[in-house]
Write a structure and sequence with these properties.
Layout (H helix, E strand, L loop, with lengths): L3 E4 L6 H8 L3 E4 L8 H8 L4 E4 L7 H6 L5 E4 L9 H6 L4 E2 L6 H16 L2 H9 L20 E5 L3 H14 L2 E5 L5 H7 L2 E2 L2 H7 L2 E4 L13 H5 L6 E4 L8 H9 L5 E4 L19 E3 L8 H21 L14
Helix pairs in contact: 1-12, 5-7
């Protein structure tokens, strides 16, 4: 009897195709809307493995009910929606899809930086509102990025690509704060490792690329923004929970910092009346960091390959909690 795989949303077809070719019985949730918790549990109880999205909250109560699962494969690099400790307690491997979306997400961080520095979103809105009337030499000026200092918080794959692009395109000085140093990137870009306070104090553009953990949740708050330059731009393409959105709004309104570019918000989705959307020096996107054909296809492939490899060899390609293997 073949193993039953539940895919919780419609994703690139390559995932289902690979799983079917490997002999699995695949069910795909057909709706564009995420499953309710009750629907997710009901369908998971009929499956052996789960290919889930970040919109699925897999908490302790979920794993207590669905402890029969062989594996959870996440269609995302982040997994803060999953109680990994609970999954580990029930010896369920949790997998994610790192690296395949790094280029796409770095593109968005880079694009937000440029858009905020020149207030592009705001100027586009002026045209839509029929408010582009004449040349105004001193109105809504941006600033140039050449020679500025880029600060990276979380120098993993995405942060490294962002650093290299900023160095190559604009000759930006690169500083970073990370759990450990990255000698390879230091050699490539001349990046300098600094403590957190120095990162806040010296960055002209501060770009966040960390995971959402208890240590990073709400880290960029009123206190952090108060230590940044009044001319600084805050970029977050990681997770909305890393910044305190109320404090960010206040910092921008009070001119504590100059601008912000967000691909992630807190909460998500953002309300249409959020004051950030009307600020000239802010650019907000609806969490599209991985929204390229290449990235989403790569995510689907790796999510499927994690399941296939687990059943064939006992080891997924990428795993978050490797301590469960062989236990």
């Amino acid at each position: 009897m073949s193993k039953k795989i539940l895919i919780t949303r419609i994703i690139p077809a390559i995932a289902g195709d690979l799983l079917k070719q490997a002999g699995f019985d695949v069910t795909v949730w057909p709706s564009d809307k995420p499953m309710t918790k009750e629907e997710l549990i009901e369908h998971t109880l009929q499956a052996d493995a789960l290919l889930s999205l970040g919109s699925n909250k897999l908490d302790r109560s979920f794993f207590e009910t669905c402890k029969h699962l062989d594996i959870v494969s996440q269609f995302a690099v982040g997994y803060d929606n999953i109680d990994v400790a609970a999954a580990t307690n029930f010896k369920i491997p949790v997998c994610n899809t790192p690296d395949v979306l790094s280029e796409a997400t770095a593109d968005v961080a880079f694009g937000l930086m440029i858009n905020v520095s020149r207030k592009m979103f705001y100027h586009h809105k002026q045209i839509l509102k029929d408010e582009w009337k004449q040349f105004e030499p001193l109105k809504n000026l941006g600033f140039e990025l050449s020679g500025k200092t880029l600060g990276i918080f979380g120098l993993g794959r995405i942060g490294s690509i962002m650093a290299q692009r900023c160095k190559g395109a604009y000759g930006m000085d690169v500083i970073y704060h990370n759990r450990k140093r990255n000698p390879e990137l230091e050699t490539k870009t001349g990046a300098r490792y600094v403590d957190f306070d120095t990162l806040l104090r010296e960055s002209d553009v501060l770009s966040v690329h960390c995971a959402l953990t208890p240590e990073t949740r709400g880290l960029f708050d009123k206190q952090a923004f108060s230590k940044m330059k009044k001319t600084a731009v805050f970029i977050n393409t990681a997770r909305g929970g890393v910044h305190n959105e109320t404090d960010l709004i206040e910092a921008l309104q009070n001119k504590t910092i100059w601008g912000a570019g967000l691909d992630v918000t807190n909460p998500e989705p953002m309300r249409a009346d959020n004051p950030l959307l009307e600020m000239p020096n802010v650019a907000v996107l609806p969490h599209i960091g991985s929204a390229t054909i290449e990235a989403r296809t790569g995510m689907a492939r790796l999510a499927a390959e994690n399941i296939i490899s687990f059943y064939k060899t006992g080891k997924p390609v990428t795993i978050v909690n490797p301590e469960v293997l062989g236990s």
